């Protein structure tokens, strides 16, 4: 047995290794290999590992990338949490309270964004990887979940006559109030199927 083999056996607990660990190792390997052919092989191995992990339980998968299927899941989650907000009068009461208080309104929006970040990247419901971020900084999944939920809140409240855009501050406040649970639903809808 070589010294390298001994290092591999003693490094980490093999019973606790999971698909996330495999992806970490493959990403590290991708950065180390010199030839394009070797990098292509590592990427292909990552793709195969991703497909293998998708056959497992819906939890504990490695989630990478963001596509229209993820957007549809976020929309569904947003609607499941948002329709009750659109038909319930409490949304308008809270919106009326927040409209003349811009700091409270901003705080509510920041709270919703923080919750989504926590659900997607901190709560460890799934192993979510940031893949090709916008401007190299902003995760596509975060933008998708927040964008779908806010747009759904605005459209749903507008189309169902729950807001009047002649009073834009009040309409925006109502949309932000509905956005809070809709963004939570969108994040959970995106993650729970494990896509």
From TrEMBL:
Entry superkingdom = Archaea
Q: Which InterPro entries match?
A: DUF2391
Q: Where are the transmembrane segments?
A: 71-91, 103-122, 142-160, 172-192
* Keyword Transmembrane (UniProt): yes
What's in the keyword line of the UniProt record?
Membrane, Transmembrane, Transmembrane helix
Query: Which Pfam family, giving just one, matches this sequence?
Result: DUF2391
- The reply to whether Acyltransferase figures as a keyword in the UniProt entry is no
The molecule here is called DUF2391 family protein
Annotated source species = Haloplanus litoreus
């Amino acid at each position: 047995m070589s010294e390298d083999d001994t290092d591999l056996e003693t490094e980490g607990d093999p019973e606790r290794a999971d698909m996330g660990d495999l992806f970490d190792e493959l990403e590290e390997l991708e950065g180390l290999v010199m030839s394009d052919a070797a990098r292509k092989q590592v990427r292909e191995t990552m793709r195969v590992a991703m497909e293998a992990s998708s056959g497992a339980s819906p939890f504990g998968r490695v989630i990478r990338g963001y596509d229209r299927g993820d957007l549809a899941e976020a929309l569904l989650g947003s609607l499941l949490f948002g329709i009750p907000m659109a038909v319930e009068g409490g949304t308008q009461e809270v919106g009326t309270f927040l409209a003349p208080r811009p700091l409270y309104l901003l705080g509510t929006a920041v709270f919703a964004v923080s919750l989504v970040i926590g659900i997607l990247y901190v709560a460890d419901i799934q192993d979510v990887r940031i893949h090709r971020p916008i401007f190299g900084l902003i995760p596509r999944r975060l933008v998708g979940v927040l964008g779908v939920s806010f747009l759904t809140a605005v459209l749903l409240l507008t189309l169902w006559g729950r807001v009047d855009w002649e009073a834009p501050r009040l309409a925006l406040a109502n949309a932000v109030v509905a956005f809070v649970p809709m963004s939570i639903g969108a994040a959970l809808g995106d993650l729970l199927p494990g896509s």
